[in-house]
Structure formats: C-alpha cells, structure tokens
Amino acid sequence: MILSRRLRKSPYEKRAIENGASFFSLYNKMTLPMVYESYEKSYEHLCKHVQLWDVACQRQVEIVGPDALRLTELITPRDISKCAVGQCLYAPLCDEYGGIINDPIILRLAEDRFWLSIADSDVCLWVKGIAYGRGFDVKVFEPDVSPLAIQGPKADDLMADVVGAHTRDIRFFWFIDETVAGTPVKIARSGWSGKGGFEVYLQDSSRGEELWDLFWGVGQKYNVGPGAPNLIERIETGLKSYGADMTIDTNPIEAALECYIDIDKEAEYMCRDALVSVREKGESRRLVNLFIDGEDMAPMRSDWPVLSENGAKVGFVTSKVWSLKYETNIAFAMIDAPHIRPGTRVTIDAEGDVRSAVVRTDRWEST
Amino acid sequence: MILSRRLRKSPYEKRAIENGASFFSLYNKMTLPMVYESYEKSYEHLCKHVQLWDVACQRQVEIVGPDALRLTELITPRDISKCAVGQCLYAPLCDEYGGIINDPIILRLAEDRFWLSIADSDVCLWVKGIAYGRGFDVKVFEPDVSPLAIQGPKADDLMADVVGAHTRDIRFFWFIDETVAGTPVKIARSGWSGKGGFEVYLQDSSRGEELWDLFWGVGQKYNVGPGAPNLIERIETGLKSYGADMTIDTNPIEAALECYIDIDKEAEYMCRDALVSVREKGESRRLVNLFIDGEDMAPMRSDWPVLSENGAKVGFVTSKVWSLKYETNIAFAMIDAPHIRPGTRVTIDAEGDVRSAVVRTDRWEST
Questions:
Q1: Where would you tag: which of A244, A294, B191, B327 has the fewest CB atoms within 10 A of its CB?
Q2: Tens-place pLDDT, residues B259-310
Q3: Set of chain A residues whose Cβ sits within 8 Å of the Cβ of B122
C-alpha cells in the first residue's frame, strides 16, 4: 500500500506498528491497523484479556448550534429527543429514499451539540450539504478527535486502575469527561466487540502516544495486547459493517436494524415516507445469518451469489468468516424475503466453490 | 492491505494485477494500482509510448433533471453556463466558506445532465444533501461508470487504430460517444498527465476486461504498457492532488486555481461571498512550487514544515518527489503570502532532514 498526505496518519499509528501491526486497511481516508499476528490469535486474546485498538479512523462529525437537534433528528429515523446529554445512541442515518448513508454512534455532548462517531463514508459532507440547503443555524465539521478503544473482559479493571473506580459505574452507551495522560478525553462504555470495554475519545491528536503508553503500561498486569476490530468476533457478535453488510442501497428494515429506529417518532426526518412504505408493503429482502457447510473458505473479494434450491439467485453474501466458536463458516447475507426463514437451505457460489448453507436466527443459536 | 466488500474492486483490477501492479492505493473506496516496476521506469515509458491506466476509482456523480444546471452552478465558482454539451471543464467545488470539497472534471452530457468525474471524497453525499435541502428537482447518484485512461504520446495512434481516425479530431477537454469492444463508452481527450491522451468512460463494469484487452492487443505495436497516475510526472506537470495539495481547509485562490474560477459569474453559487472577500483582502497563503536542495529524500508521511530565514514556520510541504527532468527534489508547498515570491529561500524540516529550498514559478522554469 502506498501512503501519501491524502491518507491520514492515526495518532496511534506509530505504536500500532511498533507492536507488530502487519496488515492495514483504510477507513475514512485514515490507516486502520487490522491484523497483529493473526485474526485467530487476536480473537483468543480479546476473549480473555484486554486490548488497545487504534480506531482513530472512526472520525467524528460535530453538529453544534441552535438547530443541532433539529438537524440530527432530520438525518436519522432514530428518536434523538430521547438521547440525554452524556448518552450515546447507535443510529442509522438515511437519505430521503431510506438508503443508509452511515451508521454512527451519536454522542450528545450538550443540548445543542452532537458528535457522530462514524463508519466509512464522508457523512460530514452530506450533513454540511443538508444544513446549507435548509439554511440551518449550525456548524458542521470534523473536530480533532481520535478514539482509542479498550476492549475485552479486563477493560473495566484496567480503566479503574488508570482513571478511577468510578469508571466501573459508567453505564452501557453513556460517557463521562475526564483528564487522562494530561489531556481531556471522553470515556464511553462502547466499542465494536461483544466483549465489553470502552472507547476513549482523545481530543488532541498530538497526545496519542502518551494516552496509549499510559494504558499500555498499567495494562501489563492484565496481559494487555494490541488489537483491532476482529472479523471473527464481530460476526459472531452480530455486528454489521457499513459498506459491507449495508450500503446506500439498503434501508434499515432490510438491514435488520428495526430496534434502532422509531418510524413514528415526532420530529421531522428525511426517510419517513420511505420507511412507512417499506413497513406497509413488508421488506422485499433481509440481512440474515448463515451457517455455511464444509471447511474454511477463501476470503471474499466479490459478491457471492446465494441460490435457492431451484438454482435461482435470491441474494448475496455480505461478510463471511470461519467461526472459532461455532467451528463452521458463518456469514451475513442479503436474501429475498421468501427465503429468510430460519432453517431454509440455500446454496452459496463462492467463485466456483459451491456450498450448502442454512439460515440461522440472528443470534446464531438455532435454525 | 486487507480487502473486503467495503473496498470496491475495479473492473480492470484483474488485468492490472496480471500485468504486475505491485502497490495499490485506495481512492473513493476502490483499489487504485499505483506502481508497476517503479515510478521511474513507468515515467520513462509514459514519456515515450502509451499506457493503460486503471482509474476506475475516479468515480462519477451524475446530476440529472430540470434543476441540474442550477445545482451544478451552485457548487462551483466556475461558470458552468459556458460548458457546451460534449465539453468537459475542470472545476473546484467549494462549500459556503470557500473550502474545496473536490476538484472534478465536469462533463456536460446534456442540457440537464452532468457527470462530475471526481477526486477522493464523497461528493455524491454532499450534492445529495444540498439538493435535498434546497428541494431541487434532480436525481443525484453514482452511475456504473469506470474510466480507463489511455495516456502517452502514442495514445492518438492507438485510439485511431481502435476506434477510428475521427478520434484524432476530438478537441482537448471534449468527448464523444462511441461503442468500443461492444459496449457504449464516452471518449474524452483528458487525463491526469501532461503527455496527452484520453479517458474512456466505460458504462458497464462487467465489460472492463474486454475493453482493456482490445486496447492492449492493438497497442502491442505501440509498445503499450500498464501504467498509473505517476507521482513524478504529475508534479513536474503541475497537477495538484486533492487531499494532498488542497483540502476542505484550502480555498481555490490559495490553491492557485484562479484560472479555473469565475468569481463574478452570473449564476448563484455557494462560495461567492467567501471568494469575493479573499479577492479583496488578498490571499494569506498560496500553493507554490519549490526546488529542494540535495539528494533524493525519504517519502513524505507527515507534514514537513517550511521555515523562513529567521526560523519561523511559514508553511508546509504538500507533495514531494525526485524529478528526473530537473534532477532535484521538486515539491508543492502552502506558504504564507510574504514568502511566495519566486526566488525566496526557505528551509524544509523533513522529520529532521533539514534542507534549503527555493520558490520557483509555477512552471518550474525559473526563480
């Protein structure tokens, strides 16, 4: 991979490389360390200990000003009026057709100030365009904020040692303000794994290494390691990835995100008509969980068609991994409505590697 | 680099890899082959022969409908009313503060239909937001269009052999519609080098390999090679790269793009007040060309400060390369207005590698 000034450097990048990051992705035009040693070893460590993740590429979009709530309501079908100051909400953002633009965690910093902690698309440009077009009295910009995730079952102990025992009381999807390593941060109980932990929102990118070093040093007694969003763990946990499992061509009902939207919320929002229509007609397709038979498969590099029993194309796989927990290939797939019932048998054509698969419930447990 | 469904595959990617692409970048969330053999060998080949470039990542934003011209005018200080159907215009897009959002080539496909052939940012989202906010009667979307560039001094001969002698008459920054390799394309005389050539806008991504193979086969007699936007050639030619040499924090006057804007154009546009103000006050800084003394330097991976003779920071380098033509390090740098006169001596601190440098004219020739 060739890097240039166009591709931004994370404040933690140096530490990630020193600790053996061997493969990177790019996310919001910033480096994202993806692999240390292997997905499998990192998964096993994450399940038992605590890891520091360089997720600075999870950039923030700040919306601040008298019309901040009105604008934030407008761009999502989630009811933002229910979000207290100090709270976070996972919220799909949707355009006027219901297409998902991004799926950030929204942090409410003040009555009239929000951060969208975003997946990989230039949400800032979209929101700026809407604010300009509507003439809203807000500022929309990307602040200098770079999250460091502390994930794993020992994250609470590590955070208590570094910041104080009161951090054990931070509720899920709430955050507090602190000064850590001499620099102001927000600490949220959140993160892109099912193993618990925090995201620390650094607000001065020149202080990344000090922040990393503090958690790294204290973390030695908890067997702290470097880590990254883990493909195996995130699919087992049911976390969907924007750009892979959902795109602008997907609405949040198809993406199985019903519990994160409030179609009948009071505030004005862009995709109301589109979602009401989907609700009335029923979705034509849906993102489901699959077990795929046989040994481990090659990584996905293109769409893999999903075929019905009579050989017709009825969908496509969106993410796939070999699960260490279930000891089989697990996948998400977008499948036409007649074929989404748990227990349905389908066929996957993985560039010539043809496999049988079965639809599971969204908790994997059963067909 | 780890690839997934989130990062899109170019229709030419297979051919690029088969022909020895060894380093890739990501651009608009799509792979961009950057290096075959070396920048130097590719440069020498480009200066003499003809190359096929996989630039599918130069995505299109289509704006179509009754308000298409009004919307396209709104987002750029360039006068789009002067763009005829069949013509292309290079146009910085700017927000209401004058900040550059992108610098596409705009193709006028019809009176009420445009493509923005974009650099690396989600322009589609920004334009969608503005269109929604203003209630314009347009559709804004990314069509299935993937440019293949044919660049180099023998590009005219190759195009004439493949498509017909009439392609020699395509004027600079105009395009025609053709059917090539059995699929409809637009052929523009344009491209991101100073060596001449075309961009072929494929409109069916399933046909990329056929298109490549046709030009590749016929091109054998012209010593056709695989290629890519070349860092050496583009800086020697004076081509600025969005994200490196200009960003949302740069206005088009600072970016030395005055000849591509019409501040007093008739149509409404977002950044009029901002640019009028810059014109009145004079720009506070400007992108200039530099010669940097000494041997070749390490690649840039962070901002390199530019210091005045008294050691004060007066700017930063935005792109840098060893020039084969001038046999010295050449660079673009954003420098405070008092230090931009050709001939001014400055100092570059390249992460400890301290060098003397001199401001050149924007054609490099002289101080």
A1: B327
A2: 999 999 999 999 999 999 999 999 999 999 999 999 999 988 778 999 998 9
A3: 121-122, 125-126
Residue B302 Cα, gap to closest chain A Cα (Å): 7
Of the spans A16-25, B34-43, B247-256, which averages the highest pLDDT?
Answer: B247-256
Main-chain phi, psi angles of A156, to 5 degrees:
-65, -45
CB atoms within 10 A of CB B51: 27
The helix/strand count (H/E) of chain B reads as: 8, 21
Q: Whose structure tokens read 């690029």?
A: B16
What Å distances lie between residue B281 and A113, B244, B276, B333, CA to CA? 33, 26, 9, 21
Closest CA–CA distance from residue A168 to any residue of chain B (Å) = 35
Q: For B106-135, how does the pLDDT look when each residue is reduced to its tens digit (9 = 90+)?
A: 999 999 999 999 999 999 999 999 999 999
Assign a CATH topology to domain A13-59+145-235.
Gyrase A; domain 2 (3.30.1360)
CA B288 vs. chain centroid, Å, equals: 17
- Rounded to whole angstroms, the Cα distance separating B51 from B227 reads 5
Residue A214, burial from CB neighbour count under 10 angstroms (0-12, 13-18, 19+):
middle
Tokens 């203003």, residue located? B134
Enter the ipTM: 0.95
Please check whether the domain covering A284-367 is classified as CATH 2.40.30.110.
Answer: yes
A318 and B5: CB-CB below 8 Å? yes
SS (H, E, C) chain A: CCCCCCCECCCCHHHHHHCCEEEEEEECCEEEEEEECCHHHHHHHHHHCCEEEECCCCCEEEEECCCHHHHHHHCCCCCHHHCCCCEEEECCEECCCCCEEECCEEEEEECCEEEEECCCCCHHHHHHHHHHHHCCCCEEECCCCEEEEEECCCHHHHHHHHHCHHHHHCCECEEEEEEECCEEEEEEECCCCCCCEEEEEECCHHHHHHHHHHHHHHHHHHCCEEECCCHHHHHHHCCCCECCCECCCCCCCCCCCHHHCCCCCCCCCCCHHHHHHHHHHCCCEEEEEEEECCCCCCCCCCCEEEECCCCCEEEEEEEEEEECCCCEEEEEEEEEHHHCCCCCEEEEEECCEEEEEEEECCCCCCC
Nearest Cβ partner for B130 among A7, A121, A132 = A132
Query: What is the signed CA dihedral for A350, A351, A355, A360, rounded to 10 degrees?
Result: 20
Residue ranges covered by each domain of chain B: 13-59+145-235, 285-367
- Say if A165 is an interface residue toward chain B (CB within 8 Å): no
Q: B285-367 architecture in CATH? A: Beta Barrel (2.40)
- In chain A, what residues touch B96 (CB-CB under 8 Å)? 132
Q: Which amino acid is at A329?
A: N
Chain A residues whose CB is inside 8 A of the B249 CB are: none
State how far the Cα of A217 lies from the Cα of A198, in Å rounded to an integer. Answer: 17
Token couple for A300: 């996905």
